[in-house]
Design goal:
CATH superfamily: Response regulator
CATH architecture: 3-Layer(aba) Sandwich
CATH topology: Rossmann fold
Order of helices and strands: HHEHEH
Structural class: mainly alpha
Strand content: 5-15%
Number of strands: 2
Strand order of the largest sheet: 1-2
Distance between the termini: 28 Å
Shape: globular
Amino acid sequence: MDPTALELLADSGIDGTMHRARQLAPSMLHEADLILGMEKSHVDAMVRLVPETRGKVYLLDKWLDGNDIPDPYRQQRPAFEYVHEMIARDIESWRPYL
């Protein structure tokens, strides 16, 4: 994980040190009840990979503006803070549906 992301999570009381990125596998999509993508292209790619998951793959920003969440990788901390706020807001928007 990007050091800036780890720092921002730690500042929010979240330990991200155990996170490890993994390549998406069809079995992951089959096993999940709900799949949230950060960008429309991610959602489209997941549905193309496993078409029968169409009804459980959504954009994280679905209930608000329907926008992509930008990747702040290799940017300065303000970009990470902006994305963190977007993710927190979008997660909260899912609460009534979970």
